[in-house]
Amino acid sequence: MSKKGVLLINLGTPDSPSTADVRKYLNEFLMDPRVIDVNPVLRTFLVKGLIVPFRSPKSAKLYREIWSDKTGSPLMHYSILQRDLLRESLGDGYQVELAMRYQSPSIQSVLDKFKEALVDDILVIPLFPQYASASTGSVYDKVMEVIGTWPTKPNISFINSFHDDDLMIATFADNARKYKPETYDHILFSFHGLPQRQLIKADHTHSHCLKAAGCCDTLTDVNKNCYSAQSHHTAKLIAAELGIPKEKYTICFQSRLGSDPWVQPYTSEVVAKLAAEGKKRVLVFCPAFVADCLETVYEVTVEYHEEFKAGGGEHMQLVESLNDSPTFIKSLKRMVVGA
Q1: What is the DSSP track for 184-225?
Q2: Using one digit for the tens of pLDDT, what is the confidence trace for 224-280?
Q3: Domains parsed from the chain with CATH numbers
């Protein structure tokens, strides 16, 4: 009897922090039509003519700041640990593999391993807690593109999102407790950003998204697949787990690109506002990431920290991501085998 296949997929990372490898990574990532969802000609001009040539050297410098000679990028390091720990937890009846949506190991190469092993059932777990077209949706597209070329198709299923998974929520809460959240002046839940147009596209009713203030505050049938609404829900669950009152935390979004409006409020503006209000100590969660990466290790702990201090703040503390937490591995195992 063949093993059941489990495919963990994260976003990706350059093969090295060299400018050439970062350029290769950014080209593949940003040319994805679900990431920059504009006219193909305009996308090519923006990515290959403007963004990648100017951004690659800058991003390479940032990657060098977080890169380890032994383990490479934090995202790759923790993704491999998650794969290995899940393998150990599931045992011999499962073949657990790791792929990256962009760069190595490729989805194509890993799915070929399943085909060669005669795997009949594959569960794909995109490692993005909140659903977004640009992340989970892109994973769906690429997996089905590869499987679509096979003469025979395996049974295949996907985990759409796990934004409200109680074990994931517990992991973030446990990671925060050692910092004593109650001793901080304010708490930030900083999620990766998306253009507002992508949220609007996800509203199939065309009557809810950004039509009124607070449209993401409560998860409903209308916005249940909205990235922003799921992000708000994740933050509220973590806050409830830790007993953080609503007035003491802010939900915000980082890493915007270009001049189009993105999901708001922007983390950088919230950081400046908190410093101007006299807040001295801020604790930051990044619950869109299951593994620490450039956006957490550098963007929060270096860039936002420096901006906060420049505005009069004293300390900004990052709560580590899920990484190799045994509780998160239990969460992944439950996704595979059920309760």
Answers
A1: SSEEEEEEE--BHHHHHHT-TTSSSTTTSTTTTSS--TTTTT
A2: 999 999 999 999 999 999 999 999 999 999 988 777 899 999 999 999 999 999 999
A3: 4-162+326-337 (3.40.50.1400), 166-318 (3.40.50.1400)
